[in-house]
Structures are given as structure tokens and as C-alpha cells.
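Incident log entry.

Two folding requests arrived from the same account within the same minute. Monitoring flagged them as a possible duplicate submission, but the sequences differ. Recording both here for audit purposes.

Request one:
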Amino acid sequence: MESYKITSRSENGNDKAKFIINKSIGPKKPMYFENVDQAKGSPLIQQLFYLPFVKAVKLEEKQIEITRFDILEWEDVIDEVSVQLQNYLNDGGEVFENNLLDKTPVTIYAESTPNPSVMKFVSNKKLTNETVEFKDIDDAKYSPLAKKLFHFPFVKEIFISSNYVSITKYDISIWEEIVMELREFIRSFIEEGNVIIENSIVKKKKQKLSSSKNLNSFEEKIVSILEEYIKPAVASDGGNIEFDSYNSKEKSVQVILQGACSGCPSSTFTLKNGIENMLKEMLPGKVESVIAING
């Protein structure tokens, strides 16, 4: 079996040094560690943090990048670190224990929303770059996570955003009886590395957006306001808002509400006292009303 060989390099004055390895030892996606506690499960990275000058470590498939504290220069220790790493690996030292690479540690917490029928399940890992809503299992054919969730008899609708899943339940169930089961299922599904949303649905959404009618400058202003001032607040409640259209004669803006905002008892109040007032104030004389469509 070919032995491990490590070459190292660092530019003068740079606080980072790279240790290139001739064989794969890490994940395809970089992993970052800022202290020994974060390195739990990786004996190799923990050993590095025992060196007093190690500030942070980035592990890649065939490379380790170490950031040092300013107590010394890399030229003083880089060769020694390289030898230590090479000897550790050739002596059979573990990079990860308990197949840590096979699972990504995930935490999920449940958060109530203004909509009593919707619960928000927040992940410490990014789930998707898109926001997608699923009304039924047929909608979910491109989302393995959503499809599995629809197998629960109490799941009515699903909304997936960057780091959370909003679930709408049927009224026959109460959250106290089902929230733990859903939380554990979502956590296990993500931790096992399953696909959340297939690339095909992302491509379809982008094609749909690119094929939609071009917005004029005023409509672009409305979208900009929604994106900057309204979407973050809506997202914190487990929902989403999308611009649909603007009627210049009636001075009305039509928006699409998704996730927890769709069918929420307080959505009318939010529209009239929040979104509508903001658009009136920021676009005086141009907006008189906001009309919502449930996604």
C-alpha cells in the first residue's frame, strides 16, 4: 500500500500554511474547525489543536490548511508539522472515528409561527438555495424530503427554504402529539445525507423565472422593497412572499404568500398594517392596496 506523503507550503508573513497529501483523507466539501471542541470525532484535527500556535483548521479531500496565531512564523515549524502529520497517517492514525464522514451532525429545533397550523423546523445546516412550496405529494416528486413527509397522515403542506422546513398540519392533529416525531425524522433524513431537493426542480424554477414577463422599473422597485424589508421578517415567521403583479390603474400590488403566511389568520393584519403601509410610504401616490394570493 502506498504510504502517505505530505508537501507543505506557506508564503512569508502569511498566517496560513497548506499541507498537501498524496491520498484522500477528507471530505469532498471542506470542513472548518475553530477549536478542539468542534473537532470532536476527528482525532487528527484534535491533535493539531494541541499545538499552541494552531488557530483554525480547514480539512479538504487531499489537503489540510492550518491558520496560526501570531506567536511565531510558519518557517519555524512548518517542516516539523509536516513530518508529524505524515508519521501520524502512516502509523494508522484515524482522521475520523465512527464513520463521521458518513453523517453530518445536524440539529433541528421546532419553532411556532403566527399561523397555528404551521410549525417551523429550523436546521443548523443549509438545506437549499431555493424556496419551494409543496401543496401535495404530487408536487413533491422532485423533493425526496417533502415526499417522505407527505407520508405522515397529518402533513397537509410543506414549504422548504434555505435552513428550515415549514409544515402545515391538518386540524385533526395537535402539535404536542406530532412535533417530536417530525423533528426527529427531519433531523435523521438530513444527517444521513439524503437529497433535500433535486437539481431538476431548481432548474425548472429558474427557467420559469427567466421565461416570465420582464418587469418595468417601477415593478422592480416593488420587488426590491419586498426583498430587502419584508422577506426577512416573513421568513422569520416560516413563510415567504413573492411579487405577482402591479395594477397601475387601481394602484394595487398583488403578492403570493407561501409557507406559514399562506392561510394565516393574521396575514390580513400583516398585509394592511405592515406591507401595505410600507409600500404606501416608500412609493407615495403609486400604491393604494396590497392583495394577497395564497401560494
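Request two (distinct sequence, not a duplicate):
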Amino acid sequence: MLHRSAPVHPRSAAMAQATTALSGASEAMFDNPAGMAMMDHTFDVALARRSWIADILFYQGSLALRPVGGRYGTVGLSFWREDFGEIEWVVPDNDSGYIVEMIHLYHQSIGLGYALSPVPSLSIGGHVRYMVEDNAPVLYPEVDFDNDLIYYDLGLSYRTGLPSVLMGLTCRSYWRNDEEQEWAYVVEVGGAMDLFEVPLNLRGHSLVVALDRVYTRGSDKRMEIGAEYAFRETIFIRAGARGPEDLPERNYGVGLRVSLGGVNFRLDYTRGDMKYFGEINRFAVQVSY
């Protein structure tokens, strides 16, 4: 699950991806698609970019529409791309030995999401994506790299009735379109709570702490914990940690939300420091109304 090991959106990355139980907007399709049902606007669009090692770039876009106050649910569209840039491709040639070609490699996906709240306390959602992995140049069609993937993400979000306490569950799986028919999965269980609402009830301030437990194929397990402080839902400060990790990455993020004429603008930034590989930056802009 590449989008989980290398999250693009700054909020998810800063909180160490402990976002399974959190509400969201269109970007929730990449975390827990059920979170879209809790979107408090009719329309939302988000664009995010992140840098990665070896000059690899990630791009993520999402759009969500919640008509008639969510009576018929929320529908979303998603786009995701990993761009490796130009690299040298060395192949044998019968006449001249070896030749070098410059090629542009990428992975990208498009997806469709849907979320609904059948009862006020429960939200369910799904996100299906078709991913294309361009791993070989079209100059050499005899090289068969058919690595297309179909991702299936199913999510559930439950408002417990206790003040500010949310629970979430996400099941992720993909099916690889090749001879081996490889199938893999990730299961995430999480909870979140605003510590400033209970028992402090500080007006204008919130401190959401989220904890996720992640299970993957092969019995690998991981804990993720993140925190987000908000002042009047305008200024946000985030941090998180997860483990165990072979290559630990420390992330810290900030956000700003401004409302103008009924339209909300949100800017998010996260700076990460990965051991041995240096600085990683993530940016996102989001518009909703």
C-alpha cells in the first residue's frame, strides 16, 4: 500500500497517518472513505504535493460533492501520481552492444468514492481505484510489465455518543492483474478524542489525539499516534509518531483555514526528516463551500 507508506496529504503525514477515526472532506478517501460522510460542506476539492527521496514527486487530488445536505450521501473522485522523472534505461542491442535511453516512469491512479450515514451515529464508505504502473518504456513492447492494480478501500466511522469520541475501521486490499493474481490487505482500527472538550471544555481550543492499530498481510503490526491542536478552527499544529519503522520519519505540520464569503480556504504544510535521506516537504491547498 504505497499511499500508506508514503502519504501525500500534510495532515495525514504530520499525524503519523493516525486518521482512521477522524472526520474529513474529499481527502478522507485516502484515509478512511467513511469520513467523507461527515463533511460539513456541499463541495470540496483538495490538491496536495510531496517530495521524496531521489527527486521522486507525489501528487494527490480529490473532489467531493455532498448534495441535499447529505441525504443521498457523498460522492468523490480521486487522482494519485508518483513521478520518478527521467532515468536512464540500459538495454541490450544485437548490433551495438548496449544502448541507453532516457525514459519517464510513473505510477498513477484514478478512483471513485462514496460515503453515507444511514443513521446519525454511523458512517460507511468505499473507495475503488485503478492504478497503472508504467515500469517499462514503450520503445520495447516485448518487455511485459503488466502491473496494473485495483484497490478496494472500505471504511466505517462510529460516533460513540461520548463527547468528542470517534471510532474508525478501514479495510484496504488490492488485486494485482498478473499471472500470480496477488492479493494483499491492510486493516486499521482507530480512535480519536478531543482532550480539551472533556473535561476542560475550553472554548476556541481543541486538542484531538488519535491512535491507530495497523495489521497487514504477513502479521505485521504497527501503532500510529497523532495529535492536532486547533485554535478557533483557524490555526492548526500537528505532530505524530509510528512504529516500529525500518526508516523512521519525523513529521511536524501546521495549517491555516480562512473563510471568505462563505468559501473556506485551507493551506497545510508538513516538514519531515527521514533518517539517511534528509528533508521531505508536503503542501496542500483545499477549497470548500
